[in-house]
Amino acid sequence: SGLPESIIAAACARSGQRVLHVDSRNYYGGNWASFSFSGLLSWIKENQQTTDLSDECEDWRKLILENEEAIPLSRKDKTIQHVEDFCFGDQDSADGVEEAGALPKLPVFGAAGAEGVSPGSEESPAAESPGPEPESREPEQAPGTEPEGAAQGNGTETTPGNGSSPTTAAGEATPEPGKTEAAPSESSAQERKQITYSQIVREGRRFNIDLVSKLLYSRGLLIDLLIKSNVSRYAEFKNATRVLAFREGKVEQVPCSRADVFNSRQLTMVEKRMLMKFLTFCLDYEEHPEEYQDYENRTFAQFLQTRKLTPSLQHFILHSIAMVSETECSTLEGLQATKKFLQCLGRYGNTPFLFPLYGQGEIPQCFCRLCAVFGGIYCLRHAVRCLLLDRASGRCKAIVDHFGQRISANYFIVEDSYLSESTCTNVCYRQISRAVLITDQSVLNTDSEQQVSILTVPPLDQGKAAVCVIELCSSTMTCMKDTYLVHLTCPSTKTAREDLEPVVQKLFNLNTEKETENEELEKPRVLWAVYFNMRDSSAVEKNSYAGLPSNVFVCSGPDSALGNDCAVKQAETIFREMFPTEEFCPPPPNPEDIIYDEDDIEPEESGLSNSPEAKPESSAEESSSGGGAAVTKE
Q1: Where on the phi/psi map is residue 113: left (φ > 0), alpha (ψ -120 to 50), or beta?
Q2: How far is Cα 184 from Cα 193, in angstroms, rounded to an integer?
Q3: Whole-angstrom Cα distance, residue 556 to residue 547?
Q4: What whole-number distance in Å separates Cα of residue 98 and Cα of residue 19?
Q5: 487-508 pLDDT per residue, tens
């Protein structure tokens, strides 16, 4: 029930197909989901259980005919491993402390400090905002389908301009009248507010914690698709305000735009000229092949050493702008990554990135809403036992669900985690190491506490991968006030804790003792943490799966990259294989452009009837996503 499946479901429904989208889980989003704090604790408990589900009832096998063959599906999700959670805060007794009642998600125009950026226009919205549109039911608020503690969706459909604070030229929100921004904390420990575990539990619905940590490139494939399909109206976004670097044991801010470079105090005038000259070259490097062709077979790090750049500039470019591996990335790959970063600057703010308010889990729901508007049907807690193959044609003809029902379709889309071990015998998976921390202050304090930051920590040991750190503030609607939500991600070499804990120790204070060194007191204190490994199936080819027919398509889970390009490319590729002549996610029709038959228009003009076609979206329930999608032509 992740992002690729949701995009495919929306594209199919939009092109006139009938779509059934089902999920065996009791929450939406699969490994792309977002949880409240109590919801995440339930998810942790579920994934720490090692018992496998036995097939209690195999009555469905009696439904298989002589000319049919069954491909059983897995009953337990095995994509998450090595889940470990820790509480470092003041461990006062949280027994009897209950999560506060469901907090309605207020429209963003009423949330102080949360400037909304809708990718429907090229500029950050600063115009006069129209009134809010009527609130619509979110998928997870459907009666009888909401799991206890699951994160709620953004209940307001926003249009470009809704919910934006006044913005400066750099895209950052200006302080509202009568409010002052907090000054940076100088004598850390004594001024910090003590956040207890019971407070986190009580304010658990303030958290929207993503299982996968990503940002949206402002000129990436996902933003382009959101704009093209008009799905952007279902979500609200916030600019990532800072790009940080970790060098010589310290966290520093990286100048990205031209204005940042020339206003920077950490660079000398010579370094500023060097950096601007190199970044200008990267924007049109294809026109100057003589500059890099001798280094095409060398690494990008080696190429940077030949460009008369100081060590600090090389570090900034390699780890914070291109964000590539020092030992594995080629010169061309590094130049392409640098150019992509630079091209995304300035579209919505002074960094290339956007973050969806209420978490990454909102994005699949936006596409599922589009699917539902055009007639898609969604079912949670609806397990599928097997795929049924016709022996004569070799194609999949139906599925059998846990009720024993046969559901026929022309095409079947299934997420990798639903496939059984017998189907995945020859599949070699990669793993992603993930950590989520709740901290009491930012890794780099500034005048503004409301910062969304991205930091790349270079490998601490040989053979290790760089770690991507994304720090979210409370105005992203992902954590409670006076706390920060920190996501750490890297390709796995060992368990998630072994991969990521050394980085956590470098950046944060894990000591719960009152008597600590001054250096540790200056660091943000970790209040709670969870580590886990997640399967990365993005590189698996379809022919690696044993025995799958041609009309069954497999979607992968999240990959380790920062952006979402892999999911969008995969969704478009699968859609075009099914329907090569159809447009992929075309814009929905403008109600003013709908042409009605004369038979429908005449009664309306006389006031004798209300044609349902006058409001094409009103009859469809706005629901959310599920695990596999079955598609048939209407």
Answers
A1: left
A2: 14
A3: 18
A4: 39
A5: 999 999 999 999 999 999 999 9
Q: How far is CA 441 from CA 195, 253, 449, 530, 531, in A?
A: 11, 16, 8, 18, 20
393 has a pLDDT exceeding 70: yes
Question: β-pairing, 396-401 with 384-390?
Answer: antiparallel
Handedness of CA 17, 416, 565, 105 (dihedral sign): positive
Question: What is the spatial distance between Cα 313 and Cα 381, in angstroms, rounded to a whole number?
Answer: 52
Question: Using one digit for the tens of pLDDT, what is the confidence trace for 30-84?
Answer: 999 999 999 999 999 999 887 655 555 566 777 788 888 999 998 888 999 999 9
pTM: 0.81
pLDDT bin (cut points 50, 70, 90) of residue 204 is very high
Helices 221-229, 362-373: axis angle to 10 degrees equals: 30
Structure token digits, residue 476: 């992203």
Distance of CA 89 to the CA centre of its chain: 27
Window from 153-167, 297-311, 362-376 with minimum mean pLDDT: 153-167
Contact 293, 285 (CB under 8 A): no
Which domains are seen in the chain, by residue range? 257-344 (1.10.405.10)
Residue 606 phi, psi dihedral angles, 5° rounding: -85, -5
CA dist., res. 177 & res. 506, Å (int): 38
pLDDT at residue 173 greater than cutoff 60: no
Residue 272: half-sphere exposure toward Cβ, Cα within 13 Å: 14
Contact present, 200 and 527 (Cβ < 8 Å):
yes
In whole angstroms, what is the distance from residue 425 CA to residue 270 CA? 57
User: Given pLDDT bands bounded at 50, 70 and 90, which one contains residue 455?
Assistant: very high
Residue 57 DSSP symbol: -
Q: How are beta strands 411-415 and 552-555 bridged, if at all?
A: parallel
Strands (E), 374-464: 377-379, 384-390, 396-401, 406-408, 411-415, 430-439, 453-457
Instruction: State CA 440 to chain mean position distance.
Output: 23
Q: Are 196 and 90 within 8 A, CB to CB? A: yes
| Ramachandran angles phi, psi of 551, nearest 5° | -95, 15
Number of residues that this document lists for the chain: 634
Query: What confidence score (pLDDT) does residue 625 get?
Result: 37
